[in-house]
Design a protein that fits this description.
The structure is a homodimer.
Chain A lengths: L6 H4 L8 E2 L13 H8 L12 H11 L6 E4 L2 H10 L3 E6 L4 H8 L3 E6 L8 H7 L5 E5 L11 H14 L2 E5 L12 H4 L6 E6 L12 E5 L1 H10 L7 H10 L3 H22 L5 E3 L6 E6 L4 H9 L3 E2 L1 E2 L10 E5 L3 H25 L1
Parallel strand pairs in A: 1-11, 3-4, 3-5, 5-6, 6-7
Antiparallel strand pairs in A: 2-8, 7-8, 9-10, 10-13, 12-13
Keywords (chains A, B): Pyridoxal phosphate
Organism (chains A, B): Fervidicella metallireducens AeB
GO molecular function, one term (chains A, B): pyridoxal phosphate binding
């Protein structure tokens, strides 16, 4: 289970609607009005996407508040991670992190250095400073996946200072950016930097994992280098069409952020009332949970039979099998999860008593 | 101009409908009924595509007449070319050929051996035999692009014998397969071979370049190797949905093939009546033309101003600037092209006379 969202594999376990807490998608669903836009655009499928993605890049730049010349696009964020990691010889990551930060450079035979987060999954800046050397690529999730933690502004600035000093490069994966509290915007912070690439994506916040649209802000030098190695037409026509709509739907953007903030508070507080689990703080739309004296398989199986798919987290390097990750979904699903977890602990207690 | 279909770049030259002869797409347009299918599937966008592409592979296997376990899928044929060429140290191609056969392995720093086709753009099997050595990847377009020539069955078998003897691997790009006369089916010929991968695609024949769906038949061993390096979710949800429809539209398939066959005869015979060009034989839906005592820029510019986009062919390694490639389109567009080319030769003759 390297990735969440694999409903098909577990379909047989439950007959009704499956509540997928294993992939971190905006529960509000895709922006309204997109359906019509796509319908009108179907005829465009008989043409190639614009090989230079001129309109697409200009829509993204408008949304991000930067120049179109600083934009790269990809077949999901993962293609950008793939292509950037191809360009460097040594890649530094912190663990646990999104598995593709390790997997993609591994496929290219790159040297990979894995630095652990601390016990509360906070970033260890000292360790990063000691490790980074010239020409390295540092990949950080911000917020990090599966921990849900976003760096503080001063932490990020301090890390970037090191990158600059050491002549290294920072790939900041902000695929969950819009779910987070509005504190700082890294694109504004580093608008003139040559040594950073900041990934965003339509996948999570705009609830469009099927569309495959990733994009990033970076320096013009890096854009040029990137274009030299990128596959042609890697972003499909529907993604081009979707971009014309979603980034302009301010109501969707604001209400999604607000809704997730409320549900985050609700779910954190309810989960913290449940026995035998430790619930970590999060800044975005998923929550990492430590199972105390239990393992992911037991709870996964129990919940799957109730139609709930959670993410077993042992596939994240640095986590053992005592963690699960759950998405923050809509109120009714969240309540369903909370109840199921309470029942599970009840059921488990009884089983342990019986076995004793 | 590394690829065709880049209408946006030339949009300013002509005010009306641009007739794009530079990309080789089925002029009939996408299969009827697909629009409805896609409309019904829009809600699926909020889920990830199946990471294992189970339904998609089974639809493709049914269409190709093989097992789903022998199928790989990609973000267009070009992603499959990219990933396969990554696996080998030395890549052998014949020139002229589709530029990505050279470009993708080049990006990975592979050694590339380029063998010329003969003067009539026929394949030189002897040269291939002399060149291939153990562990090589041979990439052949069948039909080849930009020449339009499909290998004879015995030629292909002979080449494959060499591949087998030398313990090499053959990547056969048959993206234009369905446009060709129904002589042999390479997937049937090599159904048990461990050393071949045969690419097909929805892009050209099903007129869906915007959907980005490439697929290939290969051995189970290669499928496994491929899956280890492929990007997750590289095929989008719309491509999954389209596959459920297009491969079952037998009427579309038959009538497209018939229509192209008729238009191919028409266009070949009309073009051969035009002065100062040499028109090569073709088995598929595009035609390579040699300009006698002329260059691609002159004719490109003249035609662009009439709303016709042709493919300048000098970007194909092995061709100088005296070639263009044109797609076979519908009758009215083909007629328009023939007339414009006649006018061009007329205009050119006058200009030459005036200058003399």
């Amino acid at each position: 289970m390297k990735h969440g969202g694999d409903i098909l594999t577990y379909r047989h376990l439950y007959d009704g609607r499956i509540r997928d807490f294993s992939s971190n998608i905006n529960p509000i669903g895709m922006p309204f009005g997109l359906k019509e836009k796509i319908l009108n655009g179907i005829k465009e499928l008989t043409k190639y996407p614009d090989i230079q993605y001129r309109n697409l890049k200009s829509e993204i730049a408008k949304y991000l508040g930067c120049n179109a010349g600083n934009i790269i696009v990809g077949n999901g964020a993962v293609e950008i991670i793939n292509n950037i990691s191809f360009m460097f010889n040594r890649v530094v990551v912190v663990t646990p992190c999104f598995s593709e930060y390790i997997e993609r450079p591994e496929i290219f035979g790159k040297e990979i250095v894995k630095l652990p987060l601390d016990e509360e999954f906070e970033i260890n800046i000292k360790l990063i400073k000691e490790t980074i050397s010239e020409g390295d690529l540092l990949i950080l999730g911000n917020p990090n996946n599966p921990t849900g933690k976003r760096m503080k502004e001063n932490e990020l600035i301090e890390i970037h200072e090191t990158i600059k000093e050491k002549n290294a490069f920072l790939l900041l994966d902000e695929a969950f950016f819009e779910f987070c509290p509005e504190d700082y915007d890294s694109i504004k912070l580093f608008s003139d930097s040559e040594d950073i690439c900041i990934i965003r994506a339509a996948t999570k916040f705009f609830a469009l994992p099927g569309v495959r649209l990733g994009y990033a802000f970076t320096s013009k030098t890096m854009v040029e280098k990137y274009n030299r190695i990128a596959l042609p037409w890697s972003v499909n026509t529907f993604a081009e069409i979707a971009a014309e709509h979603i980034f302009n739907d301010q109501h969707y953007i604001t209400s999604s952020r607000d809704y997730i903030a409320v549900q985050r508070e609700y779910l954190l507080s309810e989960l913290r009332g449940i026995e035998n689990i430790k619930v970590y703080d999060t800044h975005c739309n998923f929550i990492l949970i430590k199972l105390l004296d239990d393992n992911e398989d037991n709870i996964f199986e129990y919940l799957a039979k109730k139609g709930i798919l959670v993410r077993k987290a042992s596939s994240f390097e640095g986590l053992d099998n005592s963690y699960i990750r759950v998405a923050i979904k809509d109120f009714s699903d969240n309540k369903y999860l909370v109840n199921a977890l309470r029942e599970y602990q009840q059921w488990r207690k009884q089983r342990i008593t019986q076995e004793a």
